[in-house]
Fold:
Amino acid sequence: MKKIALAVFLLSVFAVSAFAAEPLKLTMGTGGAAGTYYPYGGAICQVLGDKTGLVSITAQATGAAIENIRLLELGDIDLALVQNDSAHYAYNGTENFKDQKITSFTAIARLYPEVIHVVVGAESGINTIQDFKGKKISVGAPGSGIESNTRQILNVLGIEYSDLTPLYFSFTETTNGFKDRQVDGFMYTTGVPNPSLIDIGTFQKLRFIPIEGEDRDKIIEAYPFFTKYTFAANAYEGIDEPLESITVQSILVVRNDLPEDIVYAMTKALFENTEEIALIHAKGKEIDINTAKDGITIPFHPGALKYYQEVGIK
Structure:
């Protein structure tokens, strides 16, 4: 009987140990499969899982920033890539979150600039954003940060959706529609370079419309979370010299109720393994501890703050 009892005890110890060693399974909300968020999020998921040993994170394709915030609120995802402006809206109950504040998530870090791309066919006859009037324009998927940014920019410039034919397309739908000449132009809020733009450029010549001068100043005055950005020459086929635009920021956020030690470990792994992330996705090169808090107006998770304090980031 003693041997049986000992065997049962040892089995229970082994079972508890095995259970304790099991990584916490998490889901990260990203964006459409043809955009930057989905593959980039997958790279972060892989490295954070490998380097911490504490989590196993699955990247989930979504409608991007605004949908991700709603999914965090529902508890359907645990981490997400979002735009800093979308996070700001949620915390303040404005724009897409008017009268429905969402504060169930906190920040881990700023990742990279999300640049406004204004793109048309080179033979379209569209030379300015004002020329969008009367055209079929992809304004972004419903509930996306892209759609919010598109609407804000057009409104500041005195253009309403009623002045054009707005197409509420995802990255993939926009890519396919543009190739089939069903879309005259579109705006993307995304990292540089964007793979779907490179793909489109292999089928037809593109023209990139600048956001500059007085128009840019008016947009930034109305929405201060936008800042100036300059595309480098040859950033895409069709950009032969530096091109002015504006940008928001891509940030990594997490549910408030994730344990502090887990978020601390993920934050540490994020900043101490940027080279490994960059090997999987080039945007990993833009993760920088010195800009970790830039453009973020919402609170940080205590686990992230613990790491920042440890490395001297105020």
Observations:
- The radius of gyration is 22 Å.
- Residues 23-111+251-311 form a domain with the D-Maltodextrin-Binding Protein; domain 2 fold (CATH 3.40.190.10).
- The CA atoms of residues 122 and 205 lie 5 Å apart.
- The longest strand covers residues 105-121.
